[in-house]
Amino acid sequence: QYVLAIETSCDETAVAIIKNERELVANVVASQIESHKRFGGVVPEIASRHHIEQITLTLEEALTESDIELDRIDAIAVTEGPGLVGALLVGVNAAKALAFAKQKPLVGVHHIAGHIYANRLEEEFEFPLLSLVVSGGHTELILMKEHGSFEVIGETRDDAAGEAYDKVARTLKLPYPGGPHIDKLAEEGEVNIEFPRAWLEDGSYDFSFSGLKSAVINKLHNAKQKGEIVNSEDVAASFQESVVDVLSTKAYHAAKEYEVKQIIVAGGVAANQGLRSALHQKFDEEDIDLLIPPLHLCTDNAAMIAAAGAVAFNQGHRSGYDLNANPALSLERYGRRRQ
Ligand code: ATP
Ligand code: FE
Ligand code: MG
């Protein structure tokens, strides 16, 4: 069984094909990062235009890479939300056109469900599992008791982890997206600045990163005014230590409380070396299996949408030709719709 998937929620035009739910056959990602760099972030109008230019080429490239005819595809999956509405619409309309022209079933997929299911291309899921979602727009702890069921047990009250990385990077005058640059700097720096950690109320699995972000910005600003020199490597290392400490500690406590078999990391920040090693330190000694996707499946791609879409398809979920882009689609509601 082959599932073809399209992902255009943000600044990557991506098409992938997988076989039998877990086997990657083709994975093409056309990134627009270069076009957005000079603006320091994603410009929605530019993103939509690029998607329109790239979608057909990306689709053809995926089919060529897989050596599979469109007729042999069993279902078309597509990211329906959340994301930028104009960007999502390009993917949704392309998927609908394909599904209609080839008379194939259509399956709408939640982008974050996709980030989570990226892990299943590497290793089979064992429930209950806990997913730590850390991306450009989301920071959440999600409990899954079975396929397609998502319970948000904690989420950020302000900035997402990736967003905090990108904003701090901007203050350090690093290129967009800043996460990987801070990660690299942090490796060369020392943790010698005391930055806040937002633990919030006792037992809460929520997150907050805006206080930390402001503390870093203030520190740099004050140093500049006083003419002091601060070492960017040390700022990066100290900032990263704060983020990673809170993420890994909360994930650890939640994994224990919910007695999960697996802890799964998802989203772009899963590429972070500091986070990866902190999680290994916490979970390697435990009877909990730690899954972290390989780097090319951490940031946006369509293989993850195919992985989530194939499971939804095999559970009987279908979308109609009235499928629409939903920029604020909730993960819990998306899961309930499938039950
Ligand atoms: P969402 O998935 O929430 O809709 P998104 O799709 O924009 O948001 P992703 O593509 O999953 O987000 O991840 C991009 C984010 O990951 C950016 O904020 C980027 O800085 C961050 N990121 C990527 N690599 C690293 C890294 N090595 N360390 C820290 N952050 C990273
Ligand atoms: Fe994403
Ligand atoms: Mg992205």
Shape: globular
Total E-strand runs: 10
Ligand inventory:
adenosine-5'-triphosphate, fe (iii) ion, magnesium ion
Q: What is the CA-based Rg, rounded?
A: 20 Å
Largest sheet: 5 strands, mixed
Question: Low-confidence parts lasting 5 or more residues at pLDDT below 50?
Answer: none
Helix and strand pattern? EEEHHEHEHEEEHHHHEHEHH
Tally of DSSP helical segments:
11
Question: Distance between termini?
Answer: 23 Å
Mean pLDDT: 96
Instruction: Tell me the helix content.
Output: 40-55%
State the secondary-structure class: alpha/beta
- Approximately what portion of the residues adopt beta-strand conformation? 15-25%
Order of the strands making up the biggest sheet? 3-2-1-4-5
